[in-house]
Amino acid sequence: MGRYILRRILYAIPIAFGVSVVCFSLVYIAPGDPLQTVLPPDATAETVAIVKKAYGFDKPLPMQFLIWLGKVVTGDFGVSISTRRPVILEVSDALANTALLAMFAVPIAFFTGYVMGAVAGSFAGRWIDRVVTGAAVVGVSLPNYWLGIVLVIVFAVEYMLLPATGMGPNGSVGFNLLQWSNAQFLVLPVFTLSMIPIGILSRTTRAAVAEVRNQDFVQTLRAKGLSEWAVTRHVLKNAMPQVMAVMGLQFGYLLGGSILVETVFTWPGSGFLLSKAIINRDVPVLQGTILTLSMVFVATNLVVDLLQSLIDPRIRRG
Amino acid sequence: MASGNFLILRRPQSGRLEGRTAPIQRLAAVLALGASIVAGSTPVQAGGTLIVGMTAGDLPVTTGNPDQGFEGYRFVGYNLYNSLVLWDLSGAGDKAADIKPGLATEWNVDEANDKRWIFKLRQGVKWHDGCPFTADDVVWNFAYSGDEKAPQFNAAQFAQARAYLGTYAGVEKVDDHTVAFTTKFPDALFPYAMSYVLMISPCRAKEVNNNWTEYALKPSGTGPYKFDKMVPHQRMEFVPNADYWDKARVPKQDRLVLVPMPEASTRTAALLSGQVNWIEAPSPDAIERLKSAGMKIVTRVYPHHWSYQLNFVKGPFTDKRVRQAANYALNREDMKDLLNGLMLEQYATVPPSTAYYGHPLLYKYDPDKAKALLKEAGCLPCKVTFAISTSGSGQMQPLPMNELVKSQLDATGFEVTLNSMDWNALLQVGRGGVDASPDIHAINISRASQDPFNALIRHVWTGAWAPKGANWGHFGNPAVDKLIDGVLAEFDPAKRLALLTRLHELMNEEAVLIFVAHDLNPRAMSPKVQGFVQAQSWFQDLTPVSVTP
After folding, report:
1. pTM of the prediction?
2. Which positions 23-82 of B are in contact with A (Cβ < 8 Å)?
3. Chain A hits for B466, Cβ within 8 Å
4. Rounded Cα gap, residues B506 and B319, in angstroms
5. Predicted confidence (pLDDT) per residue in B415-454, tens digit
6. A41 and B422: CB-CB below 8 Å?
7. CA distance B220 to A150
8. pLDDT the model gives residue B391
9. Beta-strand relationship, B49-54 and B278-280
10. In B311-443, which ranges are E strands?
C-alpha cells in the first residue's frame, strides 16, 4: 500500500509538467497579448517592445517556459502581471474562498444525491424513480448562472432575505463562518453550486444501487431472512465506492471554481481569478492556478481511491 | 389602526421578514440589512458611506496611473492623486468638460522655443504622508514612468503613461516651484496630455524602498481622498483628505468604498438590495425596474462614441461613396429604442455640446440615398467584414447593437460579416492596424473623445498610423495633415478652436467613421445619495456627494 501511494505521488510530476506545457501553449496560441492588462489600448509598437523586455516576454517561448519552471521548482510562482501580488498569495486566497463553497456544496450534494439516488434505485422503474430521476435531470440541465441570478432576484431583491453579492460585509478578510452576518453570504452560491453535483450524484447512485440490487448476494441476504431495510443497508454500502469516485471528481471540479457562479455572486474564488486571468492573459496567474488545481485534482483522486479500498476491501490497491 | 401599529412594531431580525412583506417592513428590513452590511463595525456618520459598484473586473491599481481604463481614473486615479492639469468637472454639466489648473497653477509655451513649456507649480501642497510637494517630485515622477535607468522606474507605469506622452521629450526643474517640459515637436495640445499623468509621493516610495507591491497597499498622493484599506480583488476604501489644497473639493461623505462588479445583473441586484448605493452602467433593460424601486438614474452625453473605424487601404470603404452610404443606411432612432433611450444619435465625431463641433455635414437616415450611392460606386452587394467584441469597457451592448447595424446595412445593399472576438483580441487587432488585418474592413472599438488629440487627430493623422497610433485604417490626406500641423503649432486658443472646428467638419465630409451612437454615461444610485451633478466627462467629481441615513 505504501509503495502504491508513493507511485501515485510520483505520477503527479509528469502530470504537472504536461499540464504546465499545455496551459502555457494555449495562452500563447490564443489571440491577445499577455501584456494586455498593462498596455493601454493604443500603445505604440515601441512601447510594447520596451514593456515586453521589462517583463521578460521578449525571450523565445521555450526559454520563458524554462525560466518559469526553474522558479516554480524553488517555490517561486512569480508575480501577477495585473496586481503585482505574488501568485502564490493570489492562488491560495482564491482557492481558500472556493474551498469554503465546495466544503458545503459537496456534502449537501452527496447526501441529497445519495438519498435521491438510493430511493430511485431501490424502486427502479416505479413512479418514484421517474420523479426523482426527472428532478435530477432538471438539476443538471439548469444553467447554474441563470439559477444564481433568479435566486438573487427572489431572495435578495424581492424579499431581501439574503445578500445579493460578495463574500461578507467586509470582503473575505475576517470572514467569520460562525456569524450569520457573514455566513448568510454563503447560502445562495452554495445552493446554486450544489445543483449539478446533486443531479450527477443521484444518477450515479441510482445506477449503482440498481446494479447492486441485481447481484446474487442480495437474493442470498433475503433468503437468510434479513429485513428489507437491512438488505438495503448492505446494498447502499456496496454501491458507495462507485459514488465516492464520482464525488471525488465533483469536489475537484468545484474547487476549480465555477467561473459563472462566482462572477454572478462576485465571490472571490478560483473561478473568478481564472476568468480574470484569462481575459487579461495574466500568464503567471494562469500557470500558477492551473498547476495548483491540477495537483489538487491528483491528490483528491488519490484520496478517493484510498477511501474506496477502505470501504470495500476487495478493491485492493498496489 | 391596531393591526397597522402591530406591523410597524415587529422588528425584523437579521433581515428575515415575518408576516407579509408590506412596504414599511421592507423599508425597515432594508435599513437594518443595509446598515449592518454597510457600517460593519463602524457606526453610520453624518456624511454617510458611498459604496460604488464598478463595471471593472478588478480593483484599479493604486501605484499612480491606474489600469481598468478611465473607470480607474474616475474612482481611484483622480481621487487619490492629482495631475499637473485637472479636468473641470464643476458646473451644471451643460458643456463638455475642459481642463483647469491642478498641481500646476499656470502654463505657457516658452516665447523663445515653442518646443518648451513652462509650468508653474502650486505652492503649499502636501502629500498625504505630510511631505511637501516640490518641483523635484515632478521630475522624480517622470523618471518613475519614463527613465529605465532610474531606481524608481516602474515598467507597468511606463506602459500606462506612454499612451499620453506621445510628444513628451523631457522635463527639468527650473526652480523650486517651476518645471519646464520639452516636446519632440511643437505641440499646442501638450497641457491636455499632462492631465492624464498622475503624481505619486516620492517620500512614500522611499519609505517602501521602491517596492511597488508594498506601495500599492499604502499609496500616498495629493488628491481629495486618502487611502484607508483594501481587500485585493474585492473592495477598496478611501477617507476624505481634510487637508486637500482645494477647499471646495474636500469630500462631503465620510467614506468611499469601491467594489468591482463586472456582471450587470449583479450590480442591479446589489443596488436594489441595498448592498451598494451607486452603480455604474446599469443594463438598459434594468432601468425600468430601478426607477420603480425609487432609484435615481443619471445620464448625460459625454465624449464617448460607439462607431466604426474604417479600412482606407483595401476594400469597399476606400471609396468615399460607400462610407457615406453606410452612414445614410443607419436608422439611429431604432438603435436608441434598442437601448431603451440610453444613447444620443451620433452624426459627427463629438457631441454637439463640444466647443469645436461647428456645422458638419450630417448623414441623416436615408436608405434610398444609401442604395443610390452604392450603385454609383459599383458595390452591390457590398461585402464587408467587421471586427467586433463580445463585451469590453465602453463597448455598451456590442452584440445586439452590431446585429442591428448589420440588418440595417444589409437592407440597403451591404453584405456584412460580423467577426466577433473577445475584448483583448479586438484591442490587439486595433493595435496592429490594417497591415496586420487587411481583410477586415471596419473595427468596432468605442473611443474616448475627451481632448482634441484623442477626439480628432489620432483618427486621421498620418503621424498616428497604427501600430504607431490609433489611426487603424491608415487614413491619410495631405490637406488634413497640414491642418493638423497647424493645430499643433497654434498656441492661441481662439485661432486653434477655428482650426479644430474645420478639422471636425472635414472628418464628416470625408465620412471617416461610421457614426452610430454617443453613450449617455448612465449610472444609478439610491435616493439617499445627494449632491451629485454629472459632468460631460469620463471623469466625475464624487467629492460633493453625501449619503443620508
Report:
1. 0.84
2. 26, 29-30, 33, 36-38, 40, 57-58, 61, 63, 67
3. 42
4. 16
5. 999 999 988 789 889 988 999 999 999 999 999 999 999 9
6. no
7. 42
8. 83
9. parallel
10. 343-345, 382-389, 414-421, 442-443
